[in-house]
């Protein structure tokens, strides 16, 4: 049976970044990447809907080690995919990926101090078994199999096409057609202006408003710095500029939410004019950053509305009809195509089934250590980004920490590292404090966070930088163990 020091699961933005860090900080480690799909890129290859783009700037969504050099700070999906692909290709990481391998089960043997992994290899659906000393889950937090679509009464009566953005295919034709996009999150705010360019009309149908902020697609400061400084230095400076601004915006949103709300709503009024009903369609009931704030690059979303190519309707769906959607107010929206931008199905660590010494682990019963490891789960970590900042900021720090941890274990001849909740005063809290529907629907599936360090998430890059890049491993919550007692069949028995 093949054995690796580290197995990375997922060849998306996080997995490719993890591989780079391993190669450069732990060059002696033998690793492989298991990817369930036939292509790398993760999210940026899976989603193909019109206008697909980042809602974070690429100076913070990009890797710390690879400067983003393209003109647009808010990049489109194909450009991000090429960036990830180039990173993998230029560093030989693409040669380490085992495509069409979906990890199904991981079994830890204390006797052997290793994981036995069982994967399904498509298209034959054959079983593949390998072992590893450390398992690093970079598979994201949502299901790739399907998005979330509520049960809509009468959906079968609609004569047009209904599609979820996660399942967009090239044959979907919306040119000259009436489109209704259900939802008001980042996906809907991306879809509407893109589809409005060629559709007869696009209507965004929402139950309640979302905060939407217009920002320039290009970063003028970055453009200037790149013209006078070396690329890596310019990138680092812009990265920190954007990190600090993001931290400031989040902090003031929590400190003075009504002030931030007024500023955001004023921006909408300025974009749409004094006669537009901003109160109904763009004034949320919740505070800024209770849910993620949506981004409209160069105000494209507002331009589509102001130009008449798109509109917003705030109402509830009564039922689908033959020709569109009947609303609770009695109005009917006519549609040829309905797009259900209704969110994701969240799924912790890729839906993996985990056993430790023959006992199945229920992930919701665990606590997350520093937002990356799990109580009572040895030699396993996962990459999960921030809710209030770019995903890669946290993932870069997580990868750095993991590499330091592996070096520390080697230096001390440890074979096992297990987080333990030894502080009786730690109480369980939800995985993240976020009111978005897609999060609330799935909280019971995820591990808990604790009420204090190191089990609590602070969603703060500067604090995590200190804790993860420089923090000591002399931590009462970490239990280390030395050489394995035996080597052999215990892992394979699971």
Give the arrangement of secondary structure elements.
Layout: E1 2-9, H1 13-25, E2 31-34, H2 43-46, H3 58-61, H4 77-90, E3 97-98, E4 101-109, E5 114-121, E6 126-137, E7 161-163, E8 178-182, H5 186-196, E9 201-206, E10 212-215, H6 220-228, H7 231-255, H8 257-272, H9 278-281, E11 294-297, H10 300-306, E12 310-314, E13 317-320, E14 324-327, E15 332-334, E16 337-340, E17 353-356, E18 359-360, E19 368-369, E20 373-374, E21 380-382, H11 391-411, E22 416-419, E23 428-429, H12 437-440, E24 449-450, H13 461-469, E25 478-481
Parallel strand pairs: 1-2, 1-6, 2-3, 4-17, 6-21, 7-16, 8-9, 8-16, 9-12, 10-11
Antiparallel strand pairs: 4-5, 5-6, 13-14, 14-15, 17-18, 19-20, 22-25, 23-24
Helix pairs in contact: 1-11, 5-10, 6-7, 7-8, 11-13
Describe this structure in words.
By secondary structure, the protein is α/β, with parallel strands linked by helices. It has 13 helices and 25 strands. The chain has two domains: 281 residues, FAD/NAD(P)-binding domain; 186 residues, 3-Layer(bba) Sandwich (FAD/NAD(P)-binding domain). Strands 1, 2, 3, 4, 5, 6, 17, 18 and 21 form a nine-stranded mixed beta sheet that branches. A five-stranded parallel beta sheet has the order 7-16-8-9-12. A three-stranded antiparallel beta sheet has the order 13-14-15, with no helix packed on it. It is globular and about 70 Å long. The chain starts with a strand and ends in a 13-residue tail after the last strand. The C terminus is likely disordered.
């Amino acid at each position: 049976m093949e054995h690796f020091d580290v197995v990375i699961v997922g060849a998306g933005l996080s997995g490719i970044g993890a591989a780079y860090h391993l190669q450069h900080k732990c060059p002696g480690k033998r690793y492989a990447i298991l990817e369930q799909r036939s292509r790398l890129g993760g999210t940026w290859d899976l989603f193909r809907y019109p206008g697909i783009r980042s809602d974070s700037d690429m100076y913070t969504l990009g890797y710390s080690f690879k400067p983003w050099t393209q003109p647009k700070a808010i990049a489109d999906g194909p450009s991000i995919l090429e960036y990830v692909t180039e990173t993998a290709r230029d560093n030989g990481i693409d040669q380490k990926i085992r495509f069409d391998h979906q990890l199904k089960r991981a079994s830890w043997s204390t006797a052997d101090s290793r994981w036995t992994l069982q994967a399904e290899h498509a298209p034959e659906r054959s079983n593949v078994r390998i072992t590893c000393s450390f398992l690093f889950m970079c598979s994201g937090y949502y299901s790739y199999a399907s998005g979330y679509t509520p049960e809509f009464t009468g959906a079968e009566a609609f004569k047009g096409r209904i599609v979820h953005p996660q399942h967009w295919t090239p044959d979907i034709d919306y040119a000259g057609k009436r489109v209704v996009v259900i939802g008001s999150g980042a996906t809907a705010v991306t879809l509407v202006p893109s589809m409005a360019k060629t559709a007869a009309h696009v209507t965004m149908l929402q139950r309640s408003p979302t905060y939407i902020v217009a920002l320039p697609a290009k970063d003028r400061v970055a453009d200037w710095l790149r013209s006078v400084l070396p690329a890596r230095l310019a990138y680092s400076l812009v990265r920190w500029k954007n990190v600090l601004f993001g931290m400031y915006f989040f902090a003031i949103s929590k400190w003075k939410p009504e002030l931030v709300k007024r500023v955001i709503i004023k921006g909408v009024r300025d974009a749409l004019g004094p006669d537009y009903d901003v109160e109904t369609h763009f004034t949320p009931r919740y505070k800024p950053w209770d849910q993620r704030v949506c981004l409209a690059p160069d105000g494209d979303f507002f331009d589509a509305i102001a130009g008449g190519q798109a509109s917003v309707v705030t109402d509830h769906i009564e039922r689908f009809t033959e020709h569109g959607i009947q609303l609770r107010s009695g109005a009917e929206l006519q549609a040829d195509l309905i797009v259900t931008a209704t969110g994701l199905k969240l799924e912790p660590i890729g839906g993996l089934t985990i056993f430790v010494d023959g006992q199945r682990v229920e992930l919701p019963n665990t606590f997350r250590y520093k937002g990356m490891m799990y109580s009572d789960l040895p030699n396993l970590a996962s990459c999960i980004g921030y809710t209030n900042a770019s995903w890669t900021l946290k993932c870069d720090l997580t990868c750095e920490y993991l590499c330091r941890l592996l070096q520390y274990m080697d230096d001390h001849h440890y074979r096992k590292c297990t987080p333990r909740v030894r502080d009786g005063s730690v109480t369980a809290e939800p995985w993240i404090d976020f009111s978005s529907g897609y999060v609330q629907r799935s909280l019971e599936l995820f591990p808990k966070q604790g009420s204090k360090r190191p089990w609590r998430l602070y969603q703060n890059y500067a604090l995590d930088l200190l804790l993860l890049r420089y923090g000591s491993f002399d931590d009462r919550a970490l239990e280390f163990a030395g050489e394995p007692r035996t080597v052999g069949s215990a892992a394979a028995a699971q």
